[in-house]
Amino acid sequence: MKERLPKKTFAALKNTLENGEDLDPNVAEVVANAMKDWAIERGATHYSHWFQPMTGITAEKHDSFINPTPDGKIIMEFSGKELIKGEPDASSFPSGGLRATFEARGYTAWDCTSPAFLREDAAGVTLCIPTAFCSYTGEALDMKTPLLRSMEAISTQAVRVLKLFGHNEVSRVSTSVGPEQEYFIVDKAKYLKRDDLIFTGRTLFGSMPPKGQELDDHYFGSIKERIAAYMKELNIELWKLGVTAKTQHNEVAPAQHELAPIYATANIATDHNQLVMETMKKVANRQGLTCLLHEKPFAGVNGSGKHNNWSMVTNTGKNLLDPGKTPHENIQFLLFLAAVLKAVDVHADLLRVSAANPGNDHRLGANEAPPAIISVFLGSQLEDVISQLIETGEAKSSKEGGKMNIGVQTLPQFAKDATDRNRTSPFAFTGNKFEFRMVASSMSIGPANTILNTIVADVLSEMCDMLEKASNFDIAVHDLIKKTFTDHQRIIFNGNGYSDEWVEEAAKRGLPNIKSMVEAIPAYVTDKAVKIFEKHGVFSAVELHSRAEIQYEAYAKAINIEAKTMISMVSVKYIPSVINYTKKLADSINAVKSAVADADVSVQTSLLKEASSLLAKAQAALKALQEANDKANAIVEVAEAAKFFREVVVPAMGDLRTPIDILEEIVEKELWPVPTYGDLLFEV
Ligand code: ADP
Ligand code: MG
């Protein structure tokens, strides 16, 4: 931009980007022209307003730059108006009752804070412009609008706090986010043989192979050639898009991997994470592989999530969550820390729903990381500071990490961190940022950060209301920090979050344990939620109700598709294969007996009996699932339908899976109609 824009335009745009000043239409005109020239030089023929409707994936509509001239020729044009505003038909995107299909108008609006990028694919090169998406009446229909609103909210409140500490030089605070993305890679040819993977993103059947993840030999293991080649191309494609892919490694489960970018402003990080997910799929496809982003592609092995690393940074470059060497003396840090703790404690239900999707139901609250109970890990250093404060009203010291001595002369000595890590915590302080680890691997990180920003903004605003009136700031802030830590210490937990003892202990502390998406959704529309979202201008009550509605609908649709896929796979694949197998056994019994009348056919007979009995069980479970699913589909009210899917259809799916998985271990492999877990997880 600096290279291509006139100095004045560049300065004006920077002012909008950095200080949130209104955008001048004349500036947009000049920027549009420069963008077009840049894009065309790189082969672009089209531009697209790129947005994030409530489907959780991105949407785009392409327009070419060509415009006819009066003399019958064409010129390549792109106006400021076209940059700023688009008008996609909004009627086919989820709106949660915000609008009827006949009210089709929707608008996309240029988000100049997120860089435009060029996308290259079979369609050619397209200039993609990140935009917000709203209805004709101004309600947000996307993930970006509320996120941007929440960023304003937290900035306003954090700046207020900083003023109290005398930092008048700070005019904006932004939230930085670095999402670590987990994913699975399987062979595409095998993937294409599994309807469940194709239609639902996860395996609906499958028994565990003899080897799973118990040896822990995959985690950080050396990367296979085929995966290494994939990671290489993925990085290159992401760098081309301006996404700073930084680290990559193998994850816990076989065939599972992770990618993390360098952190960016919440808004850009959210856009980039969508690009990461899209590019992961695209590059895999090119290389005869398939990338699975589902939270639980395989039962019995670890699922995938996203670790949302989050911090607050001033426009003068200070990280407000940096404790420094002596956190006990850093009152400003302690106040922000206290605010985050309180926000997480008071609004745990909102954080929980920000991580809720049908896939994450298999992780959160099941026997896997992280638990559905939200708690905060602070580490020994901060926990010590806080207990000093709570117990004596004064924090006098901070534990130090000291030097690391490995006991070998030739190995370097280095400074140790003051605190160990805790992998089981859903919300962990990691040095100078919080890591929210519940987020679903396939979901946008937009909702999680929108909620995180808003709940922290709300606590900061309450704190400011109080502190701004105090006659003695030093005493007031000291008392406030002590009171906040004391009132909310129940949320701090440094132990093993996967253990049963923690579930009991958390119940004693009164922490919510919300097990499923359907149970999590009401958090969007409690009085408490409506109050804070309206107060900070992030969501209106109407928008919140529409989001809840969309979530119920999304859940019901996902389970319906899974149930129908199971029914179809059992009817046309598994049952016919098992029938083949039983016929083979019966033929063998008859053949052996006719050859040698008194031969022992007990093996074939017992296998035949067992397979036939499981076949009958599968058939009965199939009928039951079909009935349950029909009933669920007949329910009109969305919340009620979602509840029925969760409580009746999901268990019926489990009942159908059981006999099929047992059969998989009995039936001759050649006759089994789909690739097994062993084939998918170990043969990439
Ligand atoms: P780990 O989780 O192992 O500590 P990293 O330190 O690499 O790994 O951090 C993981 C992610 O957190 C990366 O995306 C990184 O860019 C991001 N990150 C690092 N510092 C911050 C910060 N201050 N605010 C937000 N994200 C951060
Ligand atoms: Mg991490």
Note the main attributes of this structure.
684 residues; Ubiquitin-like (UB roll); Four Helix Bundle (Hemerythrin (Met), subunit A); 20 helices; 47% helix; 14% strand; globular; binds adenosine-5'-diphosphate; binds magnesium ion
Return residue spans where pLDDT drops below 50 for at least 5 consecutive residues: none
Structural class: alpha+beta
Largest sheet: 9 strands, mixed
Which ions and ligands are bound to the chains? adenosine-5'-diphosphate, magnesium ion
The percent range for strand residues is 5-15%
CATH class of the largest domain: Alpha Beta
- C-alpha end-to-end distance: 43 Å
Rounded mean pLDDT score: 92
Whole-number tally of structural domains:
3
Number of strands: 19
CATH topology of the largest domain: Creatine Kinase, Chain A, domain 2
The helix count comes to 20
Secondary-structure arrangement, i.e. CATH architecture of the largest domain: 2-Layer Sandwich
User: Gyration radius, to the nearest Å?
Assistant: 28 Å
Task: Provide an overview of this structure.
This protein is 47% helix and 14% strand. The protein is α+β, with helices and mostly antiparallel strands and 684 residues long. It has helices at residues 7-19, 25-41, 80-84, 144-164, 188-191, 195-200, 225-240, 266-286, 331-346, 348-354, 379-392, 446-469, 473-488, 500-509, 517-520, 527-535, 541-595, 602-634, 638-664, 677-682; strands spanning 44-51, 59-64, 66-68, 74-76, 85-86, 106-110, 117-121, 124-135, 173-187, 245-250, 256-261, 264-265, 289-292, 306-314, 376-377, 403-404, 414-415, 427-429, 434-436. The strands form four sheets. Strands 9, 10, 11, 12, 13, 14, 15, 18 and 19 form a nine-stranded mixed beta sheet that branches. Strands 1, 2, 5, 6, 7 and 8 form a six-stranded mixed beta sheet that branches. A two-stranded antiparallel ribbon has the order 3-4. The mean pLDDT is 92. The chain folds into three domains: 7-142, Glutamine synthetase, N-terminal domain (Ubiquitin-like (UB roll)); 149-539, Glutamine synthetase/guanido kinase, catalytic domain (Creatine Kinase, Chain A, domain 2); 555-682, Up-down Bundle (Four Helix Bundle (Hemerythrin (Met), subunit A)), CATH 1.20.120.1560. A hairpin with a 7-residue loop joins β1 (44-51) and β2 (59-64). Bound molecules: adenosine-5'-diphosphate (ADP) and magnesium ion. Magnesium ion (MG) binds at residues 180, 307, 435.
